[in-house]
Design brief:
This protein has eight helices and 18 strands. The protein is an alpha+beta fold. Strands 1, 2, 3, 4, 5, 6, 7, 8 and 18 form a nine-stranded mixed β-sheet that branches. Strands 9, 10, 11, 12, 13, 14, 15, 16 and 17 form a nine-stranded mixed β-sheet that branches. Helix 3 (90-103) crosses helix 4 (111-124). The longest helix has 16 residues, at 200-215. Bound molecules: pyridoxal-5'-phosphate and 2-OXO-4-methylpentanoic acid (COI). The site of pyridoxal-5'-phosphate has 12 residues, from helix 6. The site of 2-OXO-4-methylpentanoic acid has 5 residues, from loops.
């Protein structure tokens, strides 16, 4: 599909942009352009545009406002040592986007069109890479029901958009490890629900427990399974790995209630290449506490595109608080983070074909 290209008539002035790029934080700063593609029943995908980032004008009856038919993805473009730009496993985001679309009764977007949208936007906004160490251009593809209709059924019109946000650290505190609150009153996803889909509604439901975590002095909430309230699932926006002193690693299995993280999948492969035994199996909150207290569990890491690989230092569960290892970053977590970031920036050889150069 051909994209019409409309350069921004009044982009952010260079000096203002450079200042903002020195300290981008996460999710507050946006580039000049966006990609937009429409879908309509009987017509399919059409009207692909890379143009100025601007407000949308939508009828108040637009279906997404009422029934939350919306999905999104999150991936990053990385500046390479030679000045080029690369994406990390973007075809996996394209695939997961369509899996989310299937669950939310939305049309699939051809993978190549997903990838081309990202290429188009990154090229239009190539001056928007942060100047801070570890910075990247965070890309947010999303799709929503754009038909003005109040009946409860899949919409007949959708919009697919991609916006870009220069990103530094996801965690403001810059602390060496994050502290986690185990939610007792709320769960994130039940069997048969939408836990494995990346839909906005899952995140809306995580806000109260996340606020509870913050109010209790923690950075993030960890959810337990909805049936037995016993098995550790994931954080609001990250998957978890548990590292033991015998060189084995456990991560919760993909049973349909957690998001199949692309970082998670990559870390499983990297850990196995390091000679560690990785098991995808249920792990309970009681076991976590017991293993951490005894010292058998030496590290816990949280991972995701936004948070990369972040050590968990402290946990507050139903039976009180406990510390993981020394409470700071452990060896495996630090090593894995370095390897992953090294591959993403092409400082380490990409032996898996994970890095897609786009410029
Ligand atoms: N779990 C949830 C709920 C998420 O929102 C994310 C972030 O996208 C992840 C896990 C990690 O997924 P990925 O590694 O693909 O970014
Ligand atoms: C990501 O890691 O890309 C996420 O989507 C997590 C969060 C910002 C929603």
């Amino acid at each position: 599909m051909d994209f019409s290209s409309i350069p921004h008539p009044a982009p952010v002035p260079g000096e203002t942009r450079q200042q903002a790029l020195a300290d981008p934080g996460f999710g507050t700063l946006f580039s000049d352009h966006m990609v937009s593609i429409d879908w309509e029943e009987g017509k399919g995908w059409h009207n692909a545009t890379v143009g100025p980032r601007e407000p949308l004008s939508l009828d108040p009856a637009t279906a997404v406002f009422h029934y939350a038919q919306e999905i999104f993805e999150g991936l990053k473009a990385y500046k390479q040592a030679d000045g080029g730009i690369a994406l990390f496993r973007p075809e996996e985001n394209a695939r997961r986007f369509n899996a989310s679309a299937d669950r939310l009764a939305m049309p699939n977007l051809p993978e190549e069109l997903f990838l081309e949208s990202i290429r188009q936007l990154v090229k239009a906004d190539r001056d928007w890479f942060p100047s801070v160490d570890g910075g990247s251009l965070y890309l947010r593809p999303f799709m929503f029901a754009s038909e003005a209709f109040l009946g409860v059924r899949p919409a007949k019109k959708y919009k697919f958009l991609v916006i870009a946000s220069p990103a530094g650290n996801y965690f403001k505190s810059g602390a060496p490890a994050v502290s986690i609150w185990v939610s007792r009153n709320y769960t994130r996803a039940a069997p048969g629900g939408t836990g494995a889909a990346k839909c906005g509604g899952n995140y809306a439901a995580s806000l109260v427990p996340q606020a509870e975590a913050i109010a209790k002095g923690h950075d993030q909430v960890v959810f337990l399974d909805a049936v037995e309230k016993k098995w550790i699932e994931e954080l609001g926006g990250m998957n978890l790995f548990f590292v033991f002193d015998d060189g084995s690693v456990v991560t919760p299995p993909l049973t349909g209630t957690i998001l199949p993280g692309i970082t998670r999948d990559s870390l499983i492969q990297l850990l196995r290449e390091e000679g560690l035994q990785v098991r995808e199996e249920p792990y309970s909150i009681d076991q976590w506490r017991a293993d951490a207290t005894r010292g058998d569990l030496v590290e816990t890491m949280a991972c995701g595109t936004a948070a990369v690989v972040t050590p968990v230092g402290k946990v507050e569960g139903p039976d009180g608080a406990f510390t993981i290892g020394t409470g700071g970053p452990g060896q495996i977590t630090s090593k894995l983070r370095e390897r992953l970031v090294g591959i993403q920036r092409s400082e380490i050889a990409d032996t898996h074909g994970w890095v897609m150069r786009i410029d």
